[in-house]
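Can't paste images in this forum, so I'm doing it all in text. The chain is below; anyone willing to post the predicted structure tokens underneath?
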Amino acid sequence: MNPAMPMSTRTPVRSFLLLSVVLTCMVMLLSAPPAYAQRHAIGSIVVPSGVTAPDVSTAVGDVTVDGAVEGDVETGRGNILLNGPVGGDVRSTLGNLDVNAPVNGDIDAEVGNVSIDSEVDGDIDVGNGDVILGPHAFVEGDVECGNGRIIGNGNAVQGNVTAGMASGLDSFGGGPHGPGILGFLGWLLLTLVFMACTVLVSVMAPGTLNSVTRSLERSPGRSFLFGVVSLPVAVILGLVLGISVVGIPVLIILAPAYLAFVFFGALAVAFFVGRKALLVTGRHRGGNALAAVVGAIAFSAISLIPFVGDLVMYALALLGAGATIVALMNRRRSRLDYEPYASYYGPYSGARRDA
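Text version of the structure:
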């Protein structure tokens, strides 16, 4: 028996099997485009032509879809360009949307213009910005534009059209619309709620508000920097907690806590504006409650500014949140400076303990 014989027969078999596996994998890779989800905290995303992604999401960055997306497309701050079909919804907080391919879901944009030149099966909702309907646009749902214009092919919309809370097709090609009577009532209700919260905080925590307003007056740039930085820090921390299973309960508490923190910043800015207004008008003896009322009305009136009102309100809320951080840091620094003093002289005393 030749010992080389079995080896010579096994070697071609192994080579054939290995070659078959490699060829099979190559055929599978080349026959179907890869499907992958792209989710970034910060950074632009591009879905190349011939690629299908389940979902696309980024907090800060532009999104370009040349291939296809099976699910949703989302961005917090950035523009969206759709040259390929989207199976879900399209959402943007701040940025323009250009839709040149079919969208099976809804389109929701807070601030930014939306250009439609393809089929949209769902609704289109734009907070601040124009809706531009191209010659190839076809919208099966409703189109709502809170503060802006609806321009272009009016026959493209199969559902209801609402501009400035006032429904009607006469808005096509027209100028900017005001909030309308329903919009004004909604604004008035939100203003009353915001006013009540500001007055409540000014009565329950006047010392804290005074500390925050001092930070706003002495360090406005530093306060705004801390407030802006707190947003990506909160987003990144939330993503880290969401990925880890253990951190999900913490995330459930952290998310509303941060929103409440930013809301408190808005209350602080409103109180600061009210105090300044009373000082200018010579009614500084009106007290914290009156300052809270005046400031809340002035702060809420900013939302009526076309296109940029909501953005300015968000910026002022972050300014107040940053001022709160600065006030807490100053308070901690003062406490650290007081502890060596108290240990040497005694609390609230000018005499040395060893005297």
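Residues 12 and 52 are 39 Å apart (CA to CA). Residues 180-343 form one domain.
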